[in-house]
Each structure stands twice: as structure tokens, then as C-alpha cells.
Amino acid sequence: MRDRSRSDRNKRRCRSPSASAVKWADLLDPLLVSVLDRLPSLRDRFAVASVCRTWRAVSRPSLSSATGRCPPLLFRPFVGPFHRRSRRCHQISPRRCDLLCPAAPFAPSRTMVSSGTVNLFLLGSSCGHLIFCEGRRAILADIFTGDELRSPDLPSDGWRFHYGALTGSLSSPGSNLLLSANGNLLRWGIGDSKWEECSFTPLDVHMKRIVAFKGHIFALDSAERLHVLQFSPYFSIKQMAVQWAGGSISSGMNIGFTQQLVECGGELMLVQVVPAGQIMHLKFEVYRLDLSGQPTWVKVDSLGDWALFIEESGRCPASCACPGRWGGRSNCIYYAGHGRGRWHVFSLDNTAIDTTDPESPLYFENQCISMWPSPIWVYPSMLY
């Protein structure tokens, strides 16, 4: 009898108005936006947006402003054990691909991109889409949903592409997909029926990074020269004469790390690795493009309250303001490489990197693995 009366009391208590379930759908929009703005992780923001259509609509402006305020996600191929002593350069097919968040590094999620597509040759990532090449077509795969868009056939067979990039989201007017091969750049206006080709010299050079910045499309080639692309009235490439403040800068060591172009805090910046003063020791240096007069690369002593996210291939660097909001570090570079670990954090305060240390991400013996599927930093397509 005692157990039955206790059960009855619990039922009455649950049915009382004071204990009724909270109607989260009635949460005021300004309050919901205030909560969203305090979430440090993109994964948390997407969890809120997925609750219902009403929350998704309210969340969209907040999600759109998250680029540069929340850290990017690391798209990391999982390839299993690796033997350091093997010096063979070959493509390794990943078993799966995870998405890691710097704000919650030990809670990975799976990408929805199909395993068949993931094992194609990856050219880059832009606006939440991975860019692959299969035969005579390019494939754009949404990182979160796995939805795919296939391009028209390429002009001819035999292209050896090194890099691919979008100039804007798929829904934005005038968006283009650019594919870079030696001495050539191919352009496909999203929705068009054919490709357009632009050639440049020398023929052994290819574009390795393309960035949309302040209404212009900048491209950095494999010879470390800066170019400006134009699509109207015709497709053209023009090299910029850029000086170095204090003289020419040279990396001094061929370790497989290429210069990387990234937008940060309203500036176009260049990241490179240079000797640190000791044998087999390196350090990161950052330069900004000064366009007030003669274009000049000017060294940046501090990033302030910003952090940069770069990876081995240099295809998809990113930046984030106020990293302390999610437990990150300012004036630092988050470096991911070789697909085996997560990332390493390096301060710009003249921190030297020992390339003879097997645990170093710039360990010199690792550079022979040219075809290793490198992880890349990504933002979801919903943010664009």
C-alpha cells in the first residue's frame, strides 16, 4: 500500500502545471540568439539549429556570422597505423573521415560524405564543400550532408590537377569553381554548361591557393608569386609585383611546407616557415599584404587576439577571432598535418620547431609522404 500511494503522489506531481514540460518552441527569439552567440563550438550551434524549423530560421543569421568567430572544424581522414620507416610515396585510402572541433577535441563526429567519394583525389575545400576530381569531372561534396554536385565534362582528358577552389557559395550569383593544372586554370561558372580555360607561363607552375578578398580574387602560385584573377570582360590572370619589406624572404629549407595565403582580421596574410637560427630548427612567420602604395609583404609581429589554422597541404587555412572564448590561444598557429594526430599549437613568439624530433609535425622524414591524405580545416556550407 505504501509503494502504491507513493507512486500515485508522483503521478499527481508530474501532472501538476508547475511540473509540466517546458515549451522550448515558445522561447523568445532574442533570448535564443543570445544563447547562440555564447556557444563556442560550431557543433553546439548546429545542434540548436536542428531542433525545429523555427529555431533553424532564427539560428541562420547567427550561424552566418560564426565564420571567424568560432574555430573551424578539422576534416581528418582516418588511415590506421603508419610505419615511419616506409619511404614509399603512394595514396592511402582512408577508412573513414572524422570532424574534430578545437573547442571539443575529444568528441569527434562523422562526415556524411560517402566512402567512395572520400577516396577520390581531393583538390581542396571551399564554402563547406570538398572538391574532388574523378575522370573528366569535378565533384563538389557537402561536408555535412554529403550532397554532391557534378560538373560538366572537362575540355579534354589527361589533366593533372593540383588544386581546386570555389569563389563563393553555390547559391551566390556569379560563383565559380576553379581547377588548377600546370600552366592552366579552368573555370566553371556554377550552372553553366561548359568550362573556360586560361593559360599562363611558365608551364610547370600551378595555382596552389585562391582567396576572395575585398572584391578581388587573389591566387598564389607554386613559384610563390601573387596574381589577381578577373572573369569580366574575359577570363584573365595578372601577376602582381609584390615587394618584401626589408628584402627578399626565403624559407632556406625544402621541408614540404608551402607558403599559405589566408584572410585574418580584414588583412590578407601569408604564412611561411623559415630557419630559426639553429640547425634543423624552424619557425612560423606571418606577413600582411600592404596595398597602400606599392604592394608589399610586411612582417606581422603579433596576431593580437586572433589565431590561424593551417595544414600541411596549404589548401584551406582559416582564422578565428577571440579564441579564448572557446578555450583556445591567441597569437598562435594551429597546425594539422599528415592525418595521424589532431593538431599542434605554435606561438608566434619566436617558438623554434625541432624538425629532428619524431613527434614534431614538421619532422623531416615525414616529408617523403607526398601523397598522404592531409587533414584540412573546414567551415560548414550553412555559414556561407
TrEMBL record:
Q: What is the lineage of its organism?
A: Eukaryota, Viridiplantae, Streptophyta, Embryophyta, Tracheophyta
Q: What is this protein called?
A: KIB1-4 beta-propeller domain-containing protein
Q: Which residues form the KIB1-4 beta-propeller domain?
A: 122-344
